[in-house]
Design a protein that fits this description.
The chain is mostly beta strands and 126 residues long. The chain contains no helices and eleven strands. It has strands spanning 2-7, 10-13, 18-26, 33-39, 46-51, 58-60, 68-73, 78-83, 92-99, 115-116, 120-125. Strands 2, 4, 5, 6, 9, 10 and 11 form a seven-stranded mixed beta sheet that branches. The chain has a four-stranded antiparallel beta sheet with strand order 1-3-8-7, with no helix packed on it. A hairpin with a 6-residue loop joins β4 (33-39) and β5 (46-51). 33% of the residues are buried. The mean pLDDT is 95.
Length: 126
């Protein structure tokens, strides 16, 4: 089992940046592909980005490609999400998630993920 704790959220003006972190404990972190999702009030949880176990392969939601960057440091058991050029519509609770399953198209859905963090709030003011 793995425990995930997100941090780094906050209030930022439009156009600003934030760096989210997700620290993992428990089983070997490098055994997991990792994903970031977000959920705004009244909306379903949506895919943001994912990264393979070794970090060589990444995937992004089309609307976030070019603005957000996912990365990981397996030595520090941490996955990151760099958020740039933030927009008010990026306001949401951001969650990290872990899966032992293969990194394929399914990582863009919530289904493969076995473990979730508690989320960190990102609020972008206009």
């Amino acid at each position: 089992q793995v425990q995930l704790v997100e941090s780094g959220g906050g209030l930022v003006q439009a156009g600003g940046s934030l760096r989210l972190s997700c620290a993992a404990s428990g089983r070997t972190f490098s055994s997991y592909a990792m994903g970031w999702f977000r959920q705004a009030p009244g909306n379903e949880r949506e895919f943001v980005a994912a990264i393979s176990r070794g970090g060589a392969v990444t995937g992004y939601a089309d609307s976030m490609k070019g603005r957000f960057t996912i990365s990981r440091d397996n030595a520090k058991n941490t996955v990151f999400l760099q958020l740039n050029a933030l927009k008010p519509e990026d306001t949401a609770v951001y969650y990290c998630a872990a899966t032992t399953r293969l990194f394929n198209a399914a990582v863009r859905t919530t289904a493969p993920y076995d473990y979730w963090g508690q989320g960190t709030q990102v609020t972008v003011s206009s």
